[in-house]
């Protein structure tokens, strides 16, 4: 364990973590950022991003994260590609235990580890992710304007995604493995009364058809009651079966909701541990957008800077 104590350590390198690093760097806090297992976060597995301000003609997700990474480094961020496997937030300074068995000390910590969309686990699904397969209707729905698409899921998230997509797509087919939804009654009514939405009950996706050159062309389905196989034509597949926040290393220390999202003091990014802040999708189960993640990353850096100044740990 090194004797060096960093004023601030940021865990996560998505829009939230990199924005926090930019602000912390400009405040001369010399941030250390751990990029984790997926440097750049979820945006690195998307294609074109058209709704991030400042890019009139859009920008590819990986390119956006590359620009943000270089901007953070320009202001002195030390980026390392380690995983933080566990933490000790009772100690002062706080301890971060890395995957290479080293320990890093920090006065303030910003948790920006994001959340991972749940997928079906199909090889074809992963191959076509970003080429017609998406887990974010708000992010990618525009690309399917006036085209037929399918949504997998049966909860409120699936209903919300289907309703949103029905506004722009020619047809939305909801695929659910059971014969009833678990979504709230009001959400079900909204979807089932929409003439552009059809439902494939008792069905599961076995394979996503298509190529990266031409995009998704259809789905291979199995009837969960009879076992019968079938194919349906579609030009897009949206997964709406939930997200998993990447917060496991902090379960012992920080308050979470029943799904594992970190709780923060309303109107701030402060957690219950002084000097520990949370930003981005690991604390946001509602919006989950790059711009909202970046906004809370900014908030976390400012909250951390003020906390460090108030405690006298960093002038």
Overall body shape: elongated
- Along the chain, the helix and strand elements come as EHEEEHEEEEEHEHEHEHEEEEEEEH
Report strand %: 25-35%
Query: Main sheet?
Result: 7 strands, mixed
Spatial separation of the terminal alpha carbons: 25 Å
Question: For the CA atoms, what is the radius of gyration?
Answer: 21 Å
Number of helices: 7
Oligomer classification? single chain
Q: Give the averaged pLDDT, no decimals.
A: 93
Which spans have pLDDT < 50 for at least 5 consecutive residues?
none
Based on helices, strands and strand pairing, what is the structural class?
Answer: alpha/beta
- Total E-strand runs: 19
What helical percentage do the residues reach?
Answer: 10-25%
Polypeptide structure, described:
This protein has 315 residues and is of the alpha/beta class. Helix content is 24%, strand content 28%. It is built from 7 helices and 19 strands. It has helices spanning 15-26, 61-74, 123-127, 137-140, 156-166, 185-192, 290-311; strands at 5-11, 32-34, 48-49, 59-60, 78-80, 84-88, 94-98, 103-111, 115-117, 133-134, 148-152, 171-175, 197-200, 203-211, 215-223, 229-233, 237-239, 243-245, 276-278. The strands form 5 sheets. Strands 1, 2, 5, 6, 7, 8 and 19 form a 7-stranded mixed sheet that branches. It is elongated, with a radius of gyration of 21 Å. The relative contact order is 0.18. The mean pLDDT is 93.
């Amino acid at each position: 364990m090194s004797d060096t104590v960093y004023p601030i350590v940021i865990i996560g390198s998505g829009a939230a973590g990199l924005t926090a690093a930019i602000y912390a760097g400009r405040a001369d806090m010399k941030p250390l950022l751990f990029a984790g297992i997926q440097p750049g976060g979820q945006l690195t597995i998307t294609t074109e991003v058209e709704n991030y301000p400042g890019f009139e003609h859009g920008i590819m997700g990986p390119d956006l994260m590359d620009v943000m990474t270089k901007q953070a480094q320009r202001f002195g961020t030390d980026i390392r590609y380690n995983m933080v496997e566990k933490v000790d937030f009772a100690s002062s300074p706080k301890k971060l235990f890395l995957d290479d068995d080293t320990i890093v000390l920090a006065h303030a910590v910003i948790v920006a580890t994001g959340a991972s969309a749940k997928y079906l686990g199909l090889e074809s699904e992963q191959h076509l992710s970003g080429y017609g397969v998406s887990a974010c209707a708000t992010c990618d729905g525009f690309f399917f304007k006036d085209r037929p698409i399918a949504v997998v899921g049966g909860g409120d998230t699936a209903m919300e995604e289907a309703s949103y997509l029905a506004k722009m797509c020619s047809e939305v087919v909801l695929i659910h493995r059971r014969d009833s939804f678990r979504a709230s009654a009001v959400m079900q009514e909204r979807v089932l009364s929409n003439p552009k939405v059809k439902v494939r009950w008792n069905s599961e996706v076995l394979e996503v058809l298509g190529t990266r050159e031409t995009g998704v062309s259809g789905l291979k389905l199995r009837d969960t009651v009879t076992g019968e196989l079938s194919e349906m034509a579609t030009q897009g597949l949206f997964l709406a079966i939930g997200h998993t926040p990447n917060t496991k290393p902090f379960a012992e220390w920080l308050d979470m909701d029943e799904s594992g999202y970190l709780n923060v003091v309303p109107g701030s990014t402060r957690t219950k541990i002084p000097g520990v802040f949370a930003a981005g999708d690991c604390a946001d189960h509602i919006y989950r957008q790059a711009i909202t993640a970046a906004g809370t990353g900014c908030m976390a850096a400012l909250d951390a800077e003020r906390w460090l100044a108030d405690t006298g740990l960093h002038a």
